[in-house]
Amino acid sequence: MTKQIELPKKKVLASSKSPKNFILFSKPKVGKTEAFAQLEDALILDIDHGSDYVDALKIKIDSVEDIINVGKQIFAENKPYKYTVIDTVTKLEEICVPYAEKLYSKKIQGKNWFKKDKNGKLDKTSGKAQYGNILNLPNGAGL
Predict the structure, then answer these.
(1) Structural domain harbouring 141
(2) What pLDDT, on the 0 to 100 scale, is given for residue 49?
């Protein structure tokens, strides 16, 4: 016997006022940054460099080091923001890949990641030359 479903006839009240984590995903140029700029006390970490057209608490990010430094400053100033927005996660992944490769190359399994030949070019047998970037390592080794 199937369970009878009762459809709501009026708004169901919210059970929480603020999500701990929230991901907004959509096609480009539909207003994600603009929506987050409306949040009170939200710092936008603009990795995509697309916030020039909105008034917001925002800072441009170019590297993982920038993110680390901003994070340290946020804690040094006693967490002055209610929200931190990463804009965009796609660009975050792009700037994290070189950093992840650097960390991986310092591990035993990654010691040949940046191996170079006698001319200073990537050795064709090294990880970087073989796989292109760390995300392409087999069996999820780069994740």
Answers:
(1) 93-143
(2) 92
